[in-house]
């Protein structure tokens, strides 16, 4: 929420450049994990950002190992 507010201050051309610069400085000091997409698209168990399934919210490595072990209900190895 704070990141979006600061972004709107930075893009507002009606504000003075000094105020926009201060907003830019404050935004750069925020944690990187405060981005809304990085919070939403994280693996629940490992915290990985990349290759997270939207269905299970698990990273592909964790999903693969747990499904092979049979720990995830509704998933099993394919046999053909």
TrEMBL record:
GO molecular function: structural constituent of ribosome
Domain of life: Eukaryota
Entry-linked Pfam families: Ribosomal_S14
An annotated GO cellular component: ribosome
Key word Ribosomal protein present: yes
Keywords on record: Mitochondrion, Ribonucleoprotein, Ribosomal protein
A Gene Ontology BP annotation from the UniProt entry: translation
UniProt xrefs under InterPro entries: Ribosomal_uS14
SUPFAM superfamilies in alphabetical order: Glucocorticoid receptor-like (DNA-binding domain)
Family indicated by similarity: Belongs to the universal ribosomal protein uS14 family.
Protein name, as recorded: Ribosomal protein S14
Organism, as annotated: Stylonychia lemnae
Lineage of the organism: Eukaryota, Sar, Alveolata, Ciliophora, Intramacronucleata
């Amino acid at each position: 929420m704070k990141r979006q507010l600061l972004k709107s201050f930075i893009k507002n051309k009606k504000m003075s450049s000094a105020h926009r610069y201060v907003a830019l400085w404050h935004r750069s000091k925020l944690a990187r994990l405060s981005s809304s997409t990085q919070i939403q698209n994280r693996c629940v168990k490992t915290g990985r950002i990349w290759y997270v399934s939207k269905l299970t919210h698990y990273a592909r490595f964790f999903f693969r190992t747990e499904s092979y072990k049979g720990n995830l209900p509704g998933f099993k190895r394919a046999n053909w």
